[in-house]
Specification:
Layout lengths: L1 E9 L5 E10 L4 E5 L6 H8 L7 E6 L2 E2 L5 H6 L1 E5 L10 H5 L1 H5 L4 H14 L16 H13 L5 E5 L7 H18 L2 E6 L2 H7 L2 E6 L3 E6 L1 H6 L4 H7 L3 H5 L15 E3 L4 H5 L5 E5 L5 E6 H4 L27 H10 L4 E5 L5 E6 H24 L5
Parallel strand pairs: 3-8, 3-9, 6-7, 7-8, 11-12
Antiparallel strand pairs: 1-2, 1-4, 4-5, 9-10, 12-13, 14-15
């Protein structure tokens, strides 16, 4: 656990970057510090490893005051990832990753073995080990930066806008990689970003800073979107926060319609008998083939097989046990039928959702979340 206890950073000219910050970062969780430029989030992060010294207050790591540690030794026990990676251009990739293990007097063979282990962990081809940073793409360099920060297996990882210098597609990939690594490693991560979307995606807890180094709200991403503390937080998280909040509600709460679908060997008469605007046609393995419009079936012979009838494409599917209500809503919005197909992991159809079924599931999920938050508040715990 990392604890800020009334920490202030005041510069000689009187500028206050961080003002009496009190904050707890739970062990094994990802805390994202987010806010506009100049709000003190990067200053707060750099005070943890003493790249910036606080003017007042105390910072503890597992109850130990960081001021009691020798700075260089403290930093070797804390992983640090920065924008533009900060790799040594004259060192190979494996030697860049091995920097801290070598400073900690590991043998060269052991340090390089650790480098290769981490290259695999962060998704880098081992053939890159003897290359130099300029021979890698920006996204690959950033992966090297993460691997270097993890090399000595530190319990704490600090990340200062680590993905802001890469393009949006690579950035999304790196965010996914961070989520995968954290699920496996359970580090205490403190990450700075100015992008609230990134904060909501990767953070277990998000701390929103106001200008002047004050905290506006510290909460889970779902609570941040569902119950902003004030107008400042509401404006900061954005106008579409209701849609984004659906990412935190599982689609397995949807009551899917299992009636409005038939096999491809069924007849036009069978489909008409369902009396629905659209019928989902399944193949012999119960995977979706396409949509049959009831209006188009009226003019067809009643005995015709649906396998021989022109079908509308199904669009993209969603997995109720894996995806969120936002994914289900997205699939429904993009479907010309205003319906979306829920499938199992093997692609077989579980059922069909509609806007009405989505509306019911969303209302139930929001009510359950509100009850959970109220129970947590009564118990004196964080939401």
């Amino acid at each position: 656990m990392i604890t800020f206890d009334h920490v202030t950073k005041r510069y000689p000219d009187g500028t206050v970057a961080v003002d009496a910050l009190s904050l707890e970062i739970p062990a094994g969780k990802t805390m994202v510090l987010v806010g506009p430029s100049g709000c003190g989030k990067t200053t707060s992060l750099r005070m943890i490893n003493r790249l910036i010294e606080p003017t007042e207050g105390t910072i503890l790591i597992d109850g130990q005051d960081v001021q009691a540690a020798e700075p260089a030794q403290l930093r070797r026990g804390i992983g640090y990832v920065i924008q533009q990676t900060g790799l040594f251009p004259h060192r190979t990739i494996e030697d860049n990753i091995a920097t801290v293990p070598l400073l900690n007097h590991w043998g060269k063979a052991k340090a390089r073995a650790r480098s290769r282990e981490l290259m695999e962990l962060v998704g880098l081809d081992l053939q890159m080990a003897r290359r130099y940073p300029h021979q890698l793409s920006g996204g690959q360099q950033q992966r090297v930066g993460v691997a270097r920060a993890l090399a000595a297996d530190p319990p704490v990882l600090l990340m200062d806008e680590p993905f802001s210098a890469v393009d949006p597609i690579v950035r999304a990939s790196l965010q996914d990689e961070l989520l995968r690594l954290q699920a496996e490693l359970h580090k205490t991560i403190v990450m700075v970003t100015h992008d609230v979307e990134e904060a909501i995606k990767v953070g277990d807890i998000v701390a929103v800073f106001r200008p002047g180094g004050h905290l506006a709200q510290v909460d889970t991403p779902e609570r941040l979107l569902g119950a902003p503390a004030d107008d400042y937080v509401t404006d900061f998280v954005g106008f579409d926060r209701g849609i984004r909040r659906l990412s935190f509600f599982s689609a397995d709460s949807l009551d899917l319609d299992a009636e409005a679908m038939v096999g491809e060997d069924a007849t036009v008469a069978d489909a008409r008998a369902l009396s629905v605007p659209w019928v989902l046609v399944l193949d012999s393995e119960r995977k979706p083939r396409g949509w049959a419009a009831s209006a188009d079936l009226v003019s067809l012979p009643a005995g015709s097989k649906l396998a021989d009838v022109p079908l509308a494409p199904i669009g993209h599917t969603f997995r109720p046990g894996h995806d969120s209500l936002r994914s289900a809503l997205d699939a429904t919005v993009l479907s010309r039928t205003e319906r979306a197909v829920g499938v199992a992991a093997d692609g077989t159809v579980l059922g069909v959702t509609t806007y009405e079924r989505l509306r019911t599931a969303i209302r139930a999920a929001e009510e359950a979340a509100d009850v959970q938050a109220a129970d947590a508040a009564r118990a004196g715990a964080a939401p």
